[in-house]
């Protein structure tokens, strides 16, 4: 794996020259428009990058964007990868390792999630303070490469507390409904049953989604600072659970995206 990471990093560096990003950004389902705020210097299609997995979802663009956002050099993944697409956990998190090798110190992650907390409504945002991992595999299983990180990485603070506090302050100042809570990572791709939603709430979850946790584990393994935020696109706490279509999820994410973009832009401006 280390050789593949080095080969991919070398290829990307040959295409972007001396550009060295400080911040990496992973844009979740329906949340790719943040790239419109980036002063783009270079774009690379995933399909043209050696060993880089390709998103199989038609609503994920599959581009690596290099540029400047609020004066900070960033690299953004416009389109992420999911375990349910058939990739291994190592493949899903490969881009995070490459971004670290390109120079990033901080990783920003966004996702679309379902609310488990009756106080968290559709269209709200939630800053992730912690997570519960219910996905069946871990990206750190197998031989550990000491050059990448320790065998047993600490997870006492997976999400940086001061960034959480700053994000909530930004949200409050801009009258954005934004909560702090626990993200539960599941496999998907099916949405949850009523009994599963209830179970996930009982064990301490505020929202549920099908991504984020593997990337965060690998980011912390490599010593990156992490901030993550969810756009709540549906509600799983009602006794009369309503069917949810993908089109509705994308529409809610699109409507809430400017609020998320504002918070991320102001956070990044502080770097």
UniProtKB/TrEMBL annotation:
EC number of the protein? 2.4.2.1
Question: Is Glycosyltransferase among the key words of this record?
Answer: yes
Q: An example of a Gene Ontology BP annotation on this entry? A: nucleoside metabolic process
Tell me the leader sequence span.
none
- Family annotation (InterPro entries): Nucleoside_phosphorylase_d, Nucleoside_phosphorylase_sf, Pur_Nuc_Pase_Ino/Guo-sp, Purine_phosphorylase, Purine_phosphorylase-2_CS
**Involved pathway(s):** Purine metabolism; purine nucleoside salvage
- Keywords, alphabetical: Glycosyltransferase, Phosphoprotein, Transferase
Q: Which residues form the Nucleoside phosphorylase domain?
A: 23-269
For this chain, the family text in UniProt reads: Belongs to the PNP/MTAP phosphorylase family.
Summarize the protein's role. The purine nucleoside phosphorylases catalyze the phosphorolytic breakdown of the N-glycosidic bond in the beta-(deoxy)ribonucleoside molecules, with the formation of the corresponding free purine bases and pentose-1-phosphate.
Q: What is this protein called?
A: Purine nucleoside phosphorylase
Q: Which organism is it from?
A: Mucilaginibacter xinganensis
